[in-house]
Design a protein that fits this description.
Layout (H helix, E strand, L loop, with lengths): L9 H13 L5 E8 L9 E2 L3 H10 L4 H9 L5 H8 L6 E4 L5 E2 L6 E6 H32 L3 E4 L8 H13 L4 E2 L2 H7 L9 H5 L4 H11 L5 E3 L5 H18 L6 E4 L4 H14 L6 E5 L4 H9 L6 E4 L1 H4 L9 E10 L2 E4 L16 E7 L6 E8 L10 E4 L7 E4 L3 E4 L2 E5 L2 E2 L6 H13 L15 E4 L1 H12 L9 E2 L2
Parallel strand pairs: 6-7, 6-11, 8-9, 9-10, 10-11, 15-21
Antiparallel strand pairs: 1-5, 1-12, 2-4, 3-5, 3-19, 12-13, 13-22, 14-15, 14-18, 16-17, 19-20
């Protein structure tokens, strides 16, 4: 990853200097990175971006040119800049694995470090995690709508910059897309790359047929033709069939066609019939053109004969919900050598934080196959899976649920200790497989694209009581403390 020390909001560095001058830069603190509501009004969110976050944290350094720039702003004194010259992250990081299904209020990343170094991470971590999580979630929805058809990420030219295009392709692959058109993403991450030709290829030749013939000569083993430059039914399909027949006579398999405009449901069924009649029943029909999960679902409901979907703009930009509202909040701080839970209070109940150092336990049916609830709990709590467990709604305290038999696993795992990565990063293929396993552990009702069934994310009794005590005290320091890790 490129140098990102200055990828931060200015107020992070001004606060850092203030902490340094006040002598509290090394005070131990805990921050949670989480989001408050799921994107796209959906039920499930897919966590992504951890690999890049770990790389950012472990490689974080201030170069001389960085320090010179900060000096020129006139805001920072020399003692503070000298301190930054030796900056290294030396804290702890716990996080949910990439590809995990996650929900509002659950920490995706937990930072325990000195106040100065933990503060610096805020803006860049939110940038990295928010974006990839958003795109992975959108991709998972589109893949779900495709119902087993291939989905190819086509978003490079519409992404908000090169990094968004590459990271977006990566996040899309994690969530189930089968390939990308982005060659750089394919090179960096080993994602399969796919593509055909543009309308300009057809326009560059005297006739559509000559364009198709030239493309078949160039790529006889990978010939998939774009058939809507002029007229799909009158010229595109007839010319494609002529080329397909020539390829077959020469011993090559005709891959298929791409439809990029018009009534995709009608044209695909019409094209499928013509391809089958000509003996090309295994030819693929690929559709593209401003697609998203809702349009794909509608087209499939109309009986479309489409085998693969190229999805660009509405995937890579998360078109209908273009930002995940991830936040980074202080939940504990050191006082007299111990970590005290901290609570942010707001007039808006949804913005009241859950205090203390927490773990997220995913609760399953006793056979471990179906997720039934997530439990936010204090990090040192133990669960007895043989005893009934009552969990509490975080806002509506009269809502409770008791589980009689269950199994569980913690979601937050150690990834950095004392500044060193202790996590064996899985391959992208392993992350992708894990994501599919995660999704399959949730019921179809929870996976609905709209009006998804509510999934329980509740508080343990200890965390609920701690939160209520702090609320009654107006956020004053609570006396139940945790030793420094």
């Amino acid at each position: 990853m490129q140098d990102l020390a200055l990828l931060t909001d200015l107020y992070e560095i001004t606060m850092m200097q203030g902490y340094y001058q006040e002598g509290i830069a090394e005070r131990r603190v805990v921050f949670d990175l989480f989001f408050r509501s799921p994107p796209f009004d959906g039920g499930l969110t897919i966590a992504a971006g951890l690999e890049q976050a770990i790389d950012y944290i472990t490689q974080l350094r201030f170069r001389e040119e960085d320090l010179n720039y900060l000096r020129k702003t006139g805001l920072f004194d020399e003692a503070f800049l000298r301190h930054l010259r030796g900056f290294r992250f030396a804290g702890h990081v716990d996080a949910v694995p990439e590809g995990s299904v996650v929900f509002p209020q659950e920490p995706l990343v937990r930072i325990q470090a000195g106040l100065l170094e933990a503060q610096l991470l805020e803006s860049a971590l939110l940038n990295i995690i928010n974006f990839q999580t958003l795109i992975a979630t959108k991709a998972a929805r589109i893949v779900q709508a495709a119902q087993g058809d291939q989905v190819i990420e086509f978003g490079l030219r519409r992404a908000q910059g090169p990094d968004a295009a590459v990271w977006g392709a990566r996040a899309s692959y994690i969530a189930g897309c089968t390939a990308t058109s982005n060659v750089l993403a394919g090179y960096r991450y080993g994602i399969p790359v796919r593509g055909t030709h543009a309308h300009s290829w057809v326009q560059a030749f005297p006739t559509e047929l000559e364009a198709f013939q030239a493309y078949a000569r160039a790529f006889p083993k990978n010939c998939l033709l774009l058939v809507d430059t002029y007229n799909v039914m009158k010229s595109g399909i007839p010319n494609a069939l002529k080329v397909a027949d020539t390829l077959r006579k020469d011993g090559h398999k005709f891959v298929g066609i791409r439809l990029d405009s018009g009534d995709l449901a009608y044209l695909s069924t019409w094209a499928r019939k013509r391809l089958d009649e000509a003996g090309f029943s295994d030819a693929t029909i690929l559709a593209s053109g401003d697609l998203d999960e809702y349009l794909i679902r509608e087209i499939k409901n109309q009986g479309a004969a489409i085998d693969a979907w190229g999805v660009g703009t509405r995937l890579i930009t998360a078109y209908d919900d273009p930002a995940l509202g991830g936040v980074y909040k202080l939940v504990a701080k050191e006082i007299d050598g111990v970590l005290h839970p901290e609570l942010k209070i707001s007039e808006n109940p949804a913005k009241i934080t859950n205090p203390g150092i927490k773990q997220v336990a995913r609760l399953y049916t006793s056979d471990g196959k179906r997720a039934v609830a997530d439990l936010l709990m204090l990090h040192d709590e133990k669960l007895d899976t043989d005893a009934p467990l009552t969990i509490f709604h975080p806002d509506y305290t009269w809502k409770r649920k008791t589980l009689e038999r269950f199994s569980c696993r913690p979601l937050l795992i150690p990834v950095i200790r004392d500044g060193q990565c202790v996590y064996s990063l899985p391959s992208l293929e392993q992350v992708r497989q894990y994501c599919q396993e995660e999704l399959s552990s949730f019921s179809p009702e929870h996976r609905r694209l709209v009006n998804a069934h509510t999934y329980f994310v509740d508080l343990s009794l200890s965390l609920w009581q701690l939160k209520q005590d702090l609320l009654r005290q107006g956020g004053a320091h609570y006396q139940d403390t945790h030793p420094l890790a």
